[in-house]
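Hey L., structure's done. Input below.
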Amino acid sequence: MHTTVHGFGYGLVTPLAAYLMACLGGALGLRCTARAMLVTRSWRPGWLALGSAAIGSGIWTMHFVAMMGFTIEHTPIRYDWLMTFASLAVAVVMVGVGIFIVGYRGASGTALFTGGTITGLGIASMHYLGMAGMHLDGQLTYNTFTVAVSVVIAMAAATAALWAAGQVRGFLWSVGAALIMGLAVTGMHYTGMAAVEVHVSGTAEPSTGGSPAELLAPMLIGPLAFLLLAGVVVVLDPLMVMGGPTAAPVERKPGIPAHTDGTRTTRHPARRARRPLVHRRPRTPQNR
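Output:
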């Protein structure tokens, strides 16, 4: 039996809340990624890992906040806990791979394309893995073309966000990039939901899984608490807010002298010492 699917069960409340979650995670992740490009290599993995977790948590939270408004007529929906939180791990890991590539190779050329592609695929994988964790008395099918469009949107959004993080132009620049990234990620989510068609077999309630309301508590306690902690780290770091560059320490390499002022010392060739002129008396024959 074909049934009606509603994606906005609470009106504009869930789309706006989902968009804010995506923007929050994107803003924190982009600032951490930008900060990682300004520090030494010993501190860089920590900032990149924090940025990966922030973006992954924000996108995951966005997805399931939006799913609060997803309802299907004539059948209740349950969610598999293991599959749901596995989608969070996939989002953080794949986003992390893309961010680490850009963080160490730079936000340009092949590194940007590779990092953006992996990050975008991570966002799409999180979405469809979370959808696979849904249990209902029926079957979900997808429109192949619409699914492909949603994946392209995810990759384009991730590439643009990583490029913006590599520009390091200050806090306002990252906020603008986060707003665009949140819009693209939320658009990717609802594009993917538009590809869903549901064929209901009956009205029986699934025997396994948790209801959307039961998933709300861990979403607020877990990822949102982490996003709050990441926000505190960003606020307490003045360089994160002002976007000013840090003075990179001079890397001493064997056999290469370190120059503190960035200028080279020019050595002039040694001049030959001129011998003093000795005035010699002319030799004349002596008169005897």
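The two ends are 146 Å apart (CA to CA). The CA atoms of residues 86 and 152 lie 23 Å apart.

-- N.
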